[in-house]
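User: Could you go from structure to sequence for me? I need the amino acid at each position, not a summary. Structure tokens:
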């Protein structure tokens, strides 16, 4: 009987840990030393009800993104450096300065870079959606 009474406590503890811990882990992932993301513009799209565009400058330290996807269309121009880009289920490819990537909505992928990389990222998504959704444990 005692075991049944601890089950709700375990459930509530796990729920609270998830609610508090997951956002902190995501913040750690985005906050790698030397990495920064600067939102240059976020605006509603005229003539496209409920849609917005965001433009960001990402300067990332060496490391991995971990598995993630973007809810909207994503276009990335590599300004400086290079990275290994892998869409789930497809072979990886190296993208370098001057290359442009297009990611369809919900396309799960991972990005790894051995040296710093600088990216200009343009996304078009439903208003209020997050730019990125992380899958599984953060690196």
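Assistant: Here is the amino acid at each position, in order:
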């Amino acid at each position: 009987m005692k075991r049944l009474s601890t089950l709700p406590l375990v459930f509530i503890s796990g729920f609270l840990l998830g609610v508090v811990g997951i956002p902190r882990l995501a913040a750690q992932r985005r906050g790698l030393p030397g990495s920064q993301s600067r939102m240059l513009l976020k605006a509603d799209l005229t003539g496209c009800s409920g849609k917005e565009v965001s433009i960001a400058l990402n300067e990332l330290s060496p490391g991995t993104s971990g598995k993630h996807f973007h809810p909207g269309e994503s276009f990335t121009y590599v300004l400086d450096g290079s990275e290994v880009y892998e869409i789930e289920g497809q072979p990886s490819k190296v993208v370098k300065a001057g290359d442009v990537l297009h990611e369809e909505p919900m396309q799960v992928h991972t990005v790894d870079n051995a040296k710093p990389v600088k990216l200009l990222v343009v996304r078009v998504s439903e208003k209020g959606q997050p730019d990125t959704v992380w899958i599984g444990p953060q690196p």
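One structural detail worth keeping in mind: The helical segments are 2-30.
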